[in-house]
């Protein structure tokens, strides 16, 4: 009868074979992720041109001192209301419909541009207001404001 196997020797790659295998794996990863790598290089270039990489490097090397300064600054009384309201602000941001806010901001910008272009030198009479209601854009804006005020007044 044969003798029982008591130890198993695993085949180990030589250092050169392991290095060759690792290089092949890296080459495949680079080929598979070419676009992401090129975008990453572009991002790094932009950060370097703006000096942000130097700033991040300096912050990383002295992070304990930098964080201590940030905490010391935030600990001031003037920031206490901000810190107390920060959780509520985060929850509020989660409830905001960003698409509608973007549209509203665009309309506000259009209104501001029109206001600056027309000027506010002349006075508006009651008759001018009545005539303005016939303008579809003004009528639509007033109708929107009325619905806004009605919705804001609901409890």
What layout of secondary structure does this protein have?
Elements: H1 15-32, H2 34-49, H3 52-61, H4 63-74, H5 80-95, H6 98-118, H7 126-132, H8 136-153
Supply the number of helical segments: 8
Low-confidence stretches: none
Report the biggest beta sheet as strand number plus sense, adding barrel if it closes: none
The succession of helices and strands, N to C, reads HHHHHHHH
Which outline best applies? Answer: elongated
Q: Please give the radius of gyration in angstroms.
A: 32 Å
Number of strands: 0
Distance between the termini: 91 Å
Give short descriptive properties of this protein.
mainly alpha; 8 helices
Structure description:
With 155 residues, the chain is mostly helical. Helices cover 76% and strands 0% of the residues. It contains eight helices and no strands. The chain has helices at residues 15-32, 34-49, 52-61, 63-74, 80-95, 98-118, 126-132, 136-153. It is elongated, with a radius of gyration of 32 Å.
Compose a concise summary of this entry.
This protein has 8 helices and no strands. With 155 residues, the protein is mostly helical. The model has no long low-confidence stretch (mean pLDDT 88).
């Amino acid at each position: 009868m044969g003798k029982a196997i008591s130890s198993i020797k695993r085949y180990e790659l030589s250092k050169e074979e392991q290095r060759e295998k690792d290089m092949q794996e890296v080459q495949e990863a680079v080929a598979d992720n070419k676009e992401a790598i090129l975008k990453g290089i572009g991002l790094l270039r932009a950060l370097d041109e703006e000096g942000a990489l130097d700033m991040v490097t300096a912050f990383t090397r002295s992070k304990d001192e930098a964080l201590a300064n940030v905490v010391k600054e935030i600990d001031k009384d003037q920031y206490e209301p901000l810190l107390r309201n920060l959780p509520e602000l985060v929850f509020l941001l989660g409830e905001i419909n960003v698409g509608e806010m973007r549209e509203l901001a665009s309309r506000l910008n259009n209104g501001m541009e029109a206001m600056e272009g027309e000027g506010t030198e002349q006075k508006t009479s009651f008759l001018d207001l009545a005539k303005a209601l016939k303008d579809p854009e003004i009528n639509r804006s007033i109708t929107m404001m009325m619905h806004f005020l009605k919705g804001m007044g609901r409890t």
